[in-house]
Design goal:
239 residues, 7 strands, Rossmann fold, single chain, elongated, alpha/beta, 9 helices
Length: 239
């Protein structure tokens, strides 16, 4: 009986005029596995949930374009949020070495850190703990004595710039470091304070001569100076 019914339905469904007169949703119900448990679909429900059309070539192309745009927007958003690792590119940027700041001072900057556009490594020592060699084209190589496990060892590096906060010359024995200042100048090292001023300040009479020029320019009222007399040496001063 069921076989005869199915054959009858196949013949009737092959008739286009018969199919056109069927109510909405009828074909959908026939295609379900179990017609006895399926509920009929009303025309209103059918209008609310229409069957999606079969994808054509143009719709697939549009989907591909929107997918590309979505992917590009996602990458842009991730880049703005800092989520993309640009170091994974075929030509990663070369990591910049930290700039070396040599501070010549009596441990004032010990343990301090300097932050800014570049990473800065601070090396600190006194003149008595330094030695150097300067070259015409090779810059300046500084040797610094450091304490490691109670033992003095020498560590070498090339400073990018120098901050001098210590007098380079004193009349005390072993306190003449003018040769180190000359070496830094010879190696072309950039300094926070001028090496010319550091070297000039090694001689107090030379500095006082510069003050005399200001004294003669501005006058004693605006720029007073203590009266002094210069002699080339102690013999001339005695005579």
């Amino acid at each position: 009986h069921n076989t005869a019914t199915m054959n009858f339905l196949r013949r009737r469904l092959s008739d286009s005029s018969f199919v056109a007169n069927l109510p909405n949703g009828y074909m959908m119900d026939l295609q379900r596995p179990d017609n006895s448990t399926s509920s009929p679909v009303s025309p209103a429900t059918e209008r609310k949930h229409p069957q999606p059309p079969q994808p054509s070539h143009s719709s697939s192309t549009g989907t591909s374009i929107f997918s590309s745009i979505s992917s590009a927007m996602k990458q842009t958003t991730q880049a703005a949020a800092g989520l993309i690792d640009h170091s994974a590119s075929p030509t990663p940027p070369v990591a910049q070495k930290p700039k070396i700041l040599l501070v010549i001072e009596a441990k004032y900057f010990q343990g301090k850190k300097v932050n800014g556009e570049f990473d800065i490594r601070v090396e600190q020592a006194e003149f008595s703990e330094l030695n150097l060699a300067a070259y015409v084209t090779g810059g300046c190589m500084v040797d610094m004595q450091v304490m490691r496990n109670g033992t003095k060892v020498v560590r070498s590096f090339k400073p990018d710039f120098v901050l001098i906060r210590q007098h380079a010359y004193s009349m005390a024995l072993g306190e003449d470091f003018r040769s180190l200042v000359i070496g830094l100048q010879y190696g072309g090292i950039h300094t926070v304070n001028s090496l010319y001023s550091i070297y000039n300040f090694c001689s107090k009479p030379w500095v006082f001569s510069q003050l005399i020029k200001i004294f003669n320019s501005l006058g004693p009222e605006k720029f007073p100076l203590v009266e002094q007399t210069f002699f080339p040496g102690h013999k001339q001063m005695v005579s």
